[in-house]
Design goal:
Double-stranded beta-helix; 15 strands; single chain; 8 helices; three-stranded antiparallel beta sheet; 287 residues
Length: 287
């Protein structure tokens, strides 16, 4: 089964066509997809109306799937490997403005990388568009952390390479005022450390590993560390490092969490439904 990879103009982001992902992959096809993802950071497949089983089979090619804590903000998902990225409540109705899960999901509008609060963290995420707003579906934006690192002056790179960062879901959700974590989640998601600078396994290029879950820098004054993280996030998400995905119904959007940041963008979530089904594969080892 041959595929066609069509990069966007910048090379960060590409469309992969010639596949029906409802059919099982083989090793050669997976290797071609992995190569496209490693090179472009973000890839997408149009017209992929996948079942949960088909999406899970796809993500398992990239590594063990992340099982998420059972908590109120994921109540619609029965499969522990999926997360409900939607503005729909447990009864299938659009969530009111004061709904607790709506508040929790607002943090997705900050630049972040999925599951960096865990050890091992996510390596690859796959997001399937189940229902999109009829008018102007909101983009999902990405930033290339390899290109951002390479744009830093060499002397600045030297000051950053040895630093380690504490990542925590409580840090990212506190930005929107969400604190209602259940006991299961608190046990499963203690704060964890990662290097500020990683080497991307697929390309050998170095990249920043930051985002909204990044709380503070180890052995640095907390306020100074937070200021440095905010400065690096602002630098690395400049327009020249970005790709904005324009959603179409039944898209499967796939990205490399180890070398990208992403964020959702706003839409009229009191008028239009938006339902995306999320899953991710984790790194094989802690980083």
């Amino acid at each position: 089964m041959s595929i066609t990879v069509t990069p966007v103009e910048s090379g960060f982001g590409a469309e992969v066509s010639g596949l029906d992902l409802r059919q099982p992959l083989n090793h050669d096809t997976y290797a071609a997809i992995e190569a496209a993802l490693s090179k472009h950071g973000v890839i997408y497949f149009r017209n992929q109306p996948l079942t949960e089983a088909e999406q899970e089979a796809f993500i398992r090619w990239f590594g063990p799937p992340n099982a998420l804590a059972r908590q109120m903000n994921n109540a619609r998902m029965k499969n522990p490997y999926f997360y409900d990225v939607s503005n729909v409540d447990e009864e299938g109705k659009i969530m009111m403005e004061d709904h607790e899960r709506r508040l929790y999901l607002k943090a997705n509008m900050f630049w972040h990388t999925d599951m960096s609060m865990r050890q091992p963290p996510a390596r690859v995420t796959a997001l399937n568009a189940i229902v999109l707003p009829e008018i102007d579906p909101p983009d999902t934006e990405f930033a290339d952390m390899r290109a951002a690192w390479e744009a830093l002056p060499p002397e600045r790179q030297k000051t950053l390479e040895s630093l380690r960062v504490v990542h925590s879901v409580y840090a990212s959700r506190s930005k929107v005022g969400y604190t209602n974590f259940n006991e299961e989640t608190r046990k499963l998601l203690p704060p964890t450390e990662h290097p500020l600078v990683r080497t991307h396994a697929g390309s050998g290029r170095k990249n920043l590993y930051i985002g909204a879950h990044a709380s503070h820098i180890v052995d640095m004054d907390e306020a100074a560390g937070r200021a440095l993280l905010e400065e690096l996030t602002e630098f690395s998400t400049q327009p020249q490092f970005r790709y904005a995905h324009k959603w179409q119904p039944q898209d499967l959007l796939v990205w490399d969490d180890s070398c990208t940041l992403h964020r959702s963008t706003p839409f009229d979530d009191q008028k239009f439904r938006r339902e995306l089904r999320w899953c991710s594969a984790r790194e094989l080892e802690a980083v």
